[in-house]
Request: fold
Amino acid sequence: MIFTVNNDTPSITLEGVYIPEFTKVWKDSENPQNKLAFIYHYCQSQHNPTNPYYNLSPEERIKILRKDYIEDEEWELENDPIVQEAIDKYNTLIPTASSAMLKSAEITAHRLSEYFSSVDFNKTKVDKEGNEIDFYDPKKIVDTLKNLSGVVKTIQELRLQVAKEWEGNKGRLKGTQTLSIFDE
Reply:
């Protein structure tokens, strides 16, 4: 367990402090507690659908988290290799198989959305015989759109499953309860 959350404030655990990337944040930062809270929420929001920052785009997430936790308005994540290394380490340690699948499914759904937004039924191409034909096949597009509700439903079900997984592991992941040796 790397973090505990008490009164909605993430704190690094003793185990977390001994992870080299988090030790660097703790030792080399002017305000380590705020940077650790930034790291916690940034990473949790990528994997945990119950995190309040989950539905934000990565750019918006960084912007809001910087405002919420980093006092220096000039601070940029890409210019802070110590925080970036801690984020990279945390992102390798926390995902579960189902949260990784959810993330992949959501990325694919966003790509589908972008694809459908770019469809232009006025666009044409020339076939092998030199005839101008539709670039997009309207029937295929409509058939695919009919199946999207199933995709959305599947993603919603997966999101619920992952949320239950995170809630079920709350004590192990967030330190909200004490585990005995028999709980493992």
